[in-house]
Amino acid sequence: MAEDKEAPKEAEPVAKKESLKDGEDVSAEFFQLCEGLEIGELVTAKQFKLNEVMSAIELMEPKMDVGVNSRVIKNLDIAISEGLYADDFPLQLAVMDATLAMIVAWLEGSSLGSTVWTNIMLQNVKLVRHPVFNPFCEGINLLVRNIHSLINNVGNLEELPEEFNPQQIFMQTRWKSRHTVIQMMRDQMSVLGAIGKTWKTAPRAEQICRAMVSRFEFVSLLLEMMGMLVPPEIEDPMYGHRRHMGDRVVLETDYPGAADDQEKQEKDAIKNDERAQSVIQKMVEEFGAKVAKDGVDQGVKEAVSEKCCGSEDHYGLQGTDTESTLEDDDDDDEDFQFKPNFQFGTVCATRIIQLAQHIHQTVKLGRRAPDNEDGDFSWLAPFEPKACVRMIPATFPRSVKVPSRLEAAKWWEEFAFKLQELIALTPASTKDLNMMYYFAKRFSLKADVFTRSLLQVCMFPVDSHILGDDYRTIAHPIEISLMKCYMPQVLDEESPVHRDPAAREAYNVFLSHMTKLAITIYGSFGCNLSRQRDRLEMAIEEISVIHFHAGRLENRTDEILLEGKYIDDAKENFSYQGTITFVFHNMLAITQQYFELGFRMDLYVPYEFPYIYWFLGKHQTSWMVMTLNRSKEIQMNYYHSNPVTKGDRKGLTEEQRAKRDRIEEELSRRMAAHEVNVENQNAFALMCQGIFKMSVILIRKNVFKMPPGGDEAEKLRFERRFEVFENTGCPLSVTYDQYKNESGTLIHINKANILACNFLKTLDLNTRIVEWGLDPEFPMYPKLQIKPKNVAPAAEPAKPTAKVPETSTAPGAQPQESTTKKSPPKKKNNASKKKK
């Protein structure tokens, strides 16, 4: 047994081999050495841990092993030897565009390790001494860290799958300040602008310099925009500035060994400075060979002396007239409340759109890829797809979709317009709860995770204060919506309910819960569709609790009015059950959004349409119309009970007449909007009834086949779809028996929809494809599409006298040229053959 345990030592000759050739088969030696191991015995090493053992069975299998083809990984020195620092402006432009494309791939759902960090310069920014790449990489690194911190703060980091800590490679890195990074990029913009002006005899070279300037300005303006719209603690996370030493946190300069690390960094900096000086000297020499060296030197000196921070017109690309506003604020005032600067953000957004359009137009100036296919950009010197493979755990390789440079430029252009919309419309959308809800809903449909997270932080920078306003929280839009449409007595200063302590306490409890719900729903719009739907399920459960607190408030209101002899019956209150109606109206709006997300995600199948559209048309829409009509009734009652609006206008003072005019104008505007909303709901109800009836017809005609299981399986599917409404109570909590009893059109469907039945009878549905088509803009309004099947007709039986063609098909196979038999020329030829 002792000899068997010593058997693994025979592996030493294999381990002494310096290297193994790629593809060398060592299976025989491996299995021979395994014979010396007992069952359950493992061989381990310092560099070979349990997670490597778990994946060793699938080693070097591309579908299972993430580390395939990662024996030699490119580093910065190898990239420099391959020409990274060469005086090749088209190559430099291609690298900049490829880096921006990798950011797009990351924001669209791939991990940082397989996209952005594949640019090895971004991992070694301090070692990059190239005059163009160093400031650009500093800016990209800061931008990526800011975006990552923003998305993490909002709570949407789950949408960006990471196999490892994305900042792990920067734990010992001390970053430059934001102001320094932006100033570096602006200085380089000035240098490139001056160099480009000396290339008057080479228009293409001038265009390339102009394009590189636009990339620098684009990144710097994104950083400035982040500084204006995002709080400092989110926008500048300062990764890597502290180290965890046991249970305490110290600065980098305070931990043991910091001096040695600093000395090593200084030596590396000197080494790279010497390399950078040689690169710059080579660039100057080659410029001098093309243009007058004096002109280049003069242009560089002018650019460095001007220190323009974007105010100069770089080839017609007008920069902003303000200097960088991103200097670190040393104000230690604890009462400081951050407020997004939308006014200056509008200027930046306009400029970013111009730059994004220019980037889109100048992508073609960069170095072309082999076969014109960008791929993962491994053909560019600084990109290594396996750069972070050693930090990725043993997992299945994930598919990474990297857009081309042209696609990424188009993405950034659309992002710029979306950013402008966010900055322009967000401040105007905070008037009431209705505007906030529908703006965020519409904006989030076509927004990416970056702009969706940015909207959340702009609306609530620190806490529940809207737009960072010290005097406005989310409760203010709620109260405005409640007061405008439902007029509760507790908000009327002349009502006795307003002065009652118990009523005020009940109202404060109700408002507190409603505020939490509003933040939850608004925060859901920062997520993707799937997470939005999950959060709406939680919101539907919360709103049932709010309904209880609204009932307490209404009961206390009725008690005060009845005890004070203000009314004889509770229903005489002009805002009777107004708060409950307000809560129920919002519940119905959330319900419709919940089903709309299901349609957008394509969760429902055609045989589920009957009970889904039955619920939407029979319950959700009808109750929505009821809440709208009740709101109109309350507003009219309040108008008639107002002393200013009572009686003739002749007895009113000029001030009272002006007040009455304002009340009437606002009321007429709300009534017009009310009529539109009611008409929309009625139209939606009719649409739901039509889709419900048509779905039943198609199921009866066996066009849409029901799955096996019968009525019991159908009941389980019904209960699963409406499970979220179980705790809401009547009328949204429905049962399968209720659905069968109320949907009486199932029995008389042929009489109720004679036109549709007659139309379907004229069609041979067996030879046609019948399906519901969903419009991305209006997913809840499907269109019934009936189109012929692309199936060739059955071949006619061959006549005895007919000649068998040489290329005859196999029995049961489809003819190869079946469509040609239907064409007019073929028919004429066949007819002439028969006559002959």
UniProtKB/TrEMBL annotation:
Biased composition (Acidic residues): 324-333
Swiss-Prot/TrEMBL keywords: Cytoplasm
Compositional bias ranges of the Polar residues kind: 807-818
Limits of the NAA35-like TPR repeats domain: 431-743
Subcellular location per the Swiss-Prot or TrEMBL entry: Cytoplasm
Compositional bias per record (Basic residues), positions renumbered to this chain: 823-836
Source organism: Caenorhabditis brenneri (Nematode worm)
Any one biological process term the GO annotation gives: stress response to copper ion
Chief place where the protein resides: cytoplasm
Record-stated family: Belongs to the MAK10 family.
Name of the protein described by the UniProt record: Protein MAK10 homolog
Region annotated Disordered, chain positions: 1-20, 311-333, 790-836
Transmembrane region(s): none
Occurrences of domain NAA35-like N-terminal (ranges): 40-125
